[in-house]
């Protein structure tokens, strides 16, 4: 007879062998989307956290086995979340599914005894929107490759940047490659006291706001877009003949048994939990109410998210939210722009590859951020393992939500499969060592970066000049503070990689790690200043009169490096963030933001109003202060 140890080894090996069936047979194409609503700010908070607290972790931890030990696993998961709440995050809720069909959920931190509390899940809403579109395709009311103008004739009012562009399809909107502006900032946030009729009116007015906008060629550039998903919501209404809340309620929420989930703000029997923000002291924030409902408005509970995932997985047997064919389409890598690196995107779920016993494992998911609320969902559709978390506080710990959720997912997978999956770096591009880039300036959604050759070469990231040292035939980051005397030795930073290459013929760099897929943070594109500027009267600070503006002000100045420099101020969850981007003066009252990706490549128009300088940007008007 076998000993207990031999039986355990045999059981673990049996689980390892099951991995053979995990790799999906989906075709691979190339993508470069950004998956998070305010990803640059999430990275900023992570960096601030490391710098302010001077983390000195060496990344070593004792190996613990969770195989087929649900109680130990649940205890470990609870402990992981307790490190973030309530000290750093006022409240968070989480849910896990361990592949046994059961939903395990809990809430940590400040809570109300009176009612069930909902958390905003931000851009995870986009998964529900994608499912709704596929449902309408199943019922014959639309096709993914239909021109979007079939349902949104207002798109014909958008001017192509060049003649001859093909039409935008519904699939283009779903995969963030429509060529439309990433967002329409003007009117994005509504009054926290807005009633349902006002919210509906703003949501349905979004297609009318397209008049006068400019679009790039679809299928050429990925630019994460709330605008696209707001438009998809309007397509759902027009194709189904139902109001958007009614459609989601009947065909998604009720079908999954979700009783405490809504796109709108109020729902009998539950309430939205209060949000907070702050670095050291937390203060209450106003309720974030948005126009682009189907881009990020859902509020829900952890238990309801478990019911949603159970119904979603039943689609594999044609008994859930989708048919099995649509379920496969949802997870299939979609065709995207030609690039030298691969990013995987479904409709519109993100895909990340892991290695387990030499085999490739795919995890799927999406993050959501509607500050002060942040959420993250990751799952494996094969084993039906799921980890979901949502928090209500914008602060230093916010950036740890996603990385902790990834750790939880790995523990869950080990409990079921007997081996912990390891995130894998993408393959090299046929190079035998780190490839030096071209010296000069680069622009990404995180701002301006200067690359300088040397020993080691340096690259500016988030205001710091970091040394680039060879690791795994790529560049790793050597981050030091206090005049280079103190090395930040946190494993999250140690695992970051920088790679120089080309994209669409342009020199670029990518920033990524095992937990940060290549391309997710955008790409840094080289640019050369041309020392052309608009008239001096257009330099200065410009303010919008829009209440609750997501972008309350802009600042345009003449940068000494030879380009117009635009500072964009974001008001998010009670805190202000800024991004600086270089522009190019095109003449004819037009400035072009340089770069590719979220809110890059878009234009500003300058002029005067009642004799005062004026900037028109992202659908809004900004008058000189």
Describe this structure in words.
- Keywords: Hydrolase.
- This is Class A beta-lactamase-related serine hydrolase.
- GO terms for molecular function: hydrolase activity.
- The protein has 625 residues and is an alpha+beta fold.
- 23% of the residues lie in helices and 29% in strands.
- The protein contains 13 helices and 36 strands.
- Strands 1, 2, 12, 13, 14, 15, 16 and 18 form an 8-stranded antiparallel sheet that branches. Strands 19-20-21-22-23-26-27-28 form an 8-stranded antiparallel beta barrel.
- The termini are far apart.
What would you say about this model in short?
The protein has 13 helices and 36 strands. α3 (70-82) runs antiparallel to α12 (400-417), α4 runs parallel beside α7 (226-240) and α8 packs across α10.
Key descriptive features of the protein:
single chain; 625 residues; alpha+beta; 13 helices; 23% helix; disordered N terminus; Beta-lactam-related; AmpC-like
Low-pLDDT segments, ≥5 res: 1-62
Rg calc: 24 Å
Residues in helix, %: 10-25%
The span between the termini is 84 Å
Bulk shape? globular
Which structural class should the secondary elements be placed in? alpha+beta
Number of strands: 36
- Report the biggest beta sheet as strand number plus sense, adding barrel if it closes: 8 strands, antiparallel
What is the residue-mean pLDDT, rounded to a whole number? 85
Enumerate how many helices there are, as a single number.
13
Strand-residue proportion? 25-35%
InterPro entries: AmpC-like, Beta-lactam-related, Beta-lactam/transpept-like
GO molecular function: hydrolase activity
Organism: Leptospira levettii
Keywords: Hydrolase
């Amino acid at each position: 007879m076998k000993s207990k140890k031999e039986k355990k080894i045999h059981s673990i090996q049996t689980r390892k062998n099951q991995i053979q069936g995990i790799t999906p047979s989906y075709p691979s194409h190339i993508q470069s989307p950004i998956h998070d609503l305010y990803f640059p700010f999430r990275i900023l908070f992570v960096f601030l956290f490391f710098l302010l607290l001077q983390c000195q972790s060496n990344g070593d931890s004792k190996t613990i086995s969770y195989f087929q030990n649900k109680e130990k696993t649940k205890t470990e998961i609870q402990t992981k979340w307790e490190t973030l709440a309530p000290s750093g995050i006022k409240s968070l809720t989480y849910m896990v599914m361990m592949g046994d069909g059961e939903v395990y959920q809990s809430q940590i931190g400040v809570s109300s005894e009176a009612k069930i509390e909902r958390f905003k899940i931000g851009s995870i809403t986009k998964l529900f929107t994608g499912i709704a579109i596929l449902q309408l395709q199943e019922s014959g009311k639309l096709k993914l490759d239909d021109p979007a103008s079939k349902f949104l004739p207002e798109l014909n009012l958008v001017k192509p940047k060049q003649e001859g562009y093909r039409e935008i399809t519904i699939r283009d909107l779903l995969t963030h490659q429509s060529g439309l502006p990433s967002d329409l900032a003007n009117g994005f946030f509504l009054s926290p006291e807005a009633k349902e009729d006002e919210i509906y009116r703003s949501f349905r007015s979004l297609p009318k706001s397209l008049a006068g906008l400019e679009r790039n060629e679809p299928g050429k550039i990925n630019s994460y877009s709330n605008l696209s998903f707001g438009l998809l919501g309007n397509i759902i209404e027009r194709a189904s003949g139902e109001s958007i809340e009614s459609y989601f309620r009947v065909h998604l929420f009720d079908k999954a048994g979700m009783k405490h989930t809504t796109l709108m703000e109020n729902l009998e029997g539950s309430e939205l939990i209060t949000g907070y923000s702050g670095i050291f002291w937390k203060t209450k924030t106003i309720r974030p109410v948005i126009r682009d409902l189907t881009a990020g408005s859902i509020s829900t509970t952890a238990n309801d998210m478990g019911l949603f995932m159970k119904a979603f997985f039943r689609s594999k047997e044609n008994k859930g939210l989708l048919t099995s064919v649509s379920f496969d389409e949802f997870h299939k890598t979609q065709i995207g722009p030609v690039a030298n690196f691969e990013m995987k995107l479904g409709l519109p779920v993100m895909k990340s590859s892991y290695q387990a016993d030499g085999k490739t494992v795919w995890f799927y998911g999406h993050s959501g951020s509607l500050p002060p609320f942040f959420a993250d969902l990751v799952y494996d559709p094969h084993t039906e393992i799921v980890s979901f978390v949502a928090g209500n506080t914008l602060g230093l710990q916010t950036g740890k939500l996603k990385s902790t959720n990834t750790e939880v997912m790995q523990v869950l997978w080990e409990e079921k499969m007997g081996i912990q999956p390891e995130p894998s770096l993408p393959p090299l591009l046929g190079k035998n060592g780190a490839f030096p880039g071209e010296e000069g300036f680069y622009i990404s959604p995180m701002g301006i970066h200067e690359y300088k050759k040397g020993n080691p070469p340096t690259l500016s990231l988030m205001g710091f000049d970091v040394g680039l040292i060879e690791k795994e035939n790529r560049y790793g980051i050597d981050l030091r503070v206090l005049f280079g005397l103190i090395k930040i030795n946190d494993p999250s930073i140690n695992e970051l990689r920088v790679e120089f290459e080309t994209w669409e013929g342009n020199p670029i760099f990518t920033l990524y790690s095992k937990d940060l897929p290549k391309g997710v943070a955008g790409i840094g594109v080289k640019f050369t200043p041309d020392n052309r500027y608009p008239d001096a009267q257009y330099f200065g600070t410009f303010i919008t009169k829009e209440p609750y503006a997501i972008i309350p002000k802009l600042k345009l100045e003449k940068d000494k490096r030879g380009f117009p420099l635009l500072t964009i101020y974001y008001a998010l969850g009670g805190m202000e963030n800024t991004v600086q981007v270089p522009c190019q003066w095109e003449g004819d009252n037009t400035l072009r933001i340089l770069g590719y990706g979220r809110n890059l490549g878009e234009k500003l128009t300058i002029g005067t109003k009642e004799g005062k300088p004026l900037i028109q940007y992202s659908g809004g008007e900004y008058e000189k202060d």
